[in-house]
Amino acid sequence: MNTLAHKIIMALTGLFLCFFLLIHFLGNTQLFLPPEHAQQSFNAYSSFLTGNFLVKLVSYVLYLSILLHAIYALIISKKNNNTGGHYKDDQRARSSKWYSRNMGVLGTIILIFIVLHFQNFWYVYKFGKISLDPWGHKDLYTVVVTAFQQGWLVIIYVLAMIALAYHLIHGISSGVRTLGLFNPKFVRWINVFGIWYSIIICTGFALMPIFIYFTHK
Amino acid sequence: MKLNLKVWRQKDRFSEGKMVDYSLDNVNTHMSFLEMLDTLNDQLIRNNEEPIEFDHDCREGICGQCGVVINGIAHGPLKNTTTCQLHMREFKDNETILIEPFRALGFPIKKDLKVDRSAFDRIISSGGFVSVNTGQAPEANSIPVSHDIAEAAFDSAACIGCGACVATCKNGSAALFTAAKITQMALLPQGKEERSHRVLNMIAQMDKEEFGHCSNTEACEVECPQGISVLNIARMNYEYNRASFLRSKKR
Ligand code: FES
């Protein structure tokens, strides 16, 4: 496989993950509801997701995307480390954005976060001991609320969302370029769209633990 | 003006190089950077030392033969300027200037500041041409090309192949160079004939030459003496995706 094919895998998996984030975000906005409402609707929503065959299929595509995105990132970075030049005096930073040069670092932070995030909620929901709410659904809402009573966890989540925002700002425009969008006007639109998409979604996600931390005492 | 120079000296492809200090007096501010190096070489020759080898040809910013990394930036501090068009007035008296060759795995150092950029030639030979019969020049208006298309093709064709994009890229990627060459031809009716072959072959050759992946940091566009746009890379990606799709359909 050549370098462009590697990049296409990165772009397709990455853009799919961006789209998934939107769905994940919209579903989770239920956490902003008043507690008694939020508990019912969030838990009902979660159990709807686990029961659905289509959602299950999408979830496998999701795991595969995360895996492929990380593996190809590793393959690409390994080659690039080797092919790039190193200078005694290196002032090349002036000509590009820091986050575009450090996608690997940001990606690693996000990957560590994903593992933590899966362990916090996904694992507990699937395999952990979890009580039922008054409506007979697994009470994920209480798990979420209890987790975000820990200030340090809230801080980690917020930091991860900052990393994610920068990763997405570069990732969206870079991914679309890899797919071959070259019309200057559309490229400009996509870049602006990508910036707003990243900022809105990541800020929204970051507000969830903060909101829960301050409203449930 | 007086300058303190730190220059990369390397005997040949296989030996280790190092930075060597030189000091140079009486530098005229109107000199170009290459003339300053000529003056230094003159001084070295008079002292019976070996002169510094560096590449150059036209010295008017059009051939793409010159190119060194000056204080950590390909072609030095000025935007859209080749090394030969950079003048000493851009530097301060008594300044220390670091001069290194372009570095990338695809550009092995031959000697001192001279690098082997023949990888670019091989990329061109693999597809950067149109197959037409030679002979008398055909009537210019027999294949109409609109003004906008002609201008866009010229913008891409402005690439002088100096390699600053590769030297600037943290990945040592030749995407901007290859993309400019692919785009200039993909835009024109003469080039459309072989577009699929061209892009597949040129990218295969680019990879064979040990250039890295493009990660779209866009540093290449900033440091390119000709300001070649990164949208050429987008066009190359489009051409590549199109060609791979068509090829898979044929199978
Ligand atoms: S020597 Fe020809 S471009 Fe500098």
SSE layout:
The complex is a heterodimer of chains A (217) and B (251).
Chain A: H1 3-28, H2 35-51, H3 53-83, H4 98-101, H5 103-127, H6 140-147, H7 151-179, H8 184-215
Helix pairs in contact in A: 1-3, 1-7, 1-8, 5-6, 5-7, 7-8
Chain B: E1 3-9, E2 18-24, H1 33-46, E3 69-70, E4 73-74, E5 96-100, E6 109-111, E7 114-115, H2 118-125, H3 147-157, H4 164-168, H5 175-186, H6 189-192, H7 195-208, H8 219-223, H9 231-250
Parallel strand pairs in B: 1-5
Antiparallel strand pairs in B: 1-2, 3-4, 3-5, 6-7
Bound molecules: FE2/S2 (inorganic) cluster.
FE2/S2 (inorganic) cluster is lined by residues 56-59, 61-66, 82-84 of chain B.
Describe the structure.
With 217 residues, chain A is an all-alpha fold. Chain A has one domain (3-215): 3 helical TM bundles of succinate and fumarate reductases. Chain A contains eight helices and no strands. Chain A has helices at residues 3-28, 35-51, 53-83, 98-101, 103-127, 140-147, 151-179, 184-215. In chain A, helix 7 (151-179) runs antiparallel to helix 8 (184-215). The radius of gyration of chain A is 19 Å and the shape is elongated. The termini of chain A are far apart. The mean pLDDT of chain A is 94. Chain B has two domains: 3-110, Beta-grasp domain (Ubiquitin-like (UB roll)); 118-131 and 143-250, Fumarate Reductase Iron-sulfur Protein, Chain B, domain 2. In chain B, helix 3 packs antiparallel against helix 5, helix 5 packs across helix 9 (231-250) and helix 7 (195-208) crosses helix 9. Chain B is 37% helix and 11% strand. In chain B, the strands form two sheets. A five-stranded mixed β-sheet of chain B has the order 2-1-5-3-4. Chain B has a two-stranded antiparallel sheet with strand order 6-7. Chain B has 251 residues and is of the alpha+beta class. The termini of chain B are far apart. The radius of gyration of chain B is 20 Å and the shape is elongated. Chains A and B meet through helix 1, helix 3 and helix 7 of A and strand 4, helix 7, helix 8 and helix 9 of B. FE2/S2 (inorganic) cluster is lined by residues 56-59, 61-66, 82-84 of chain B.
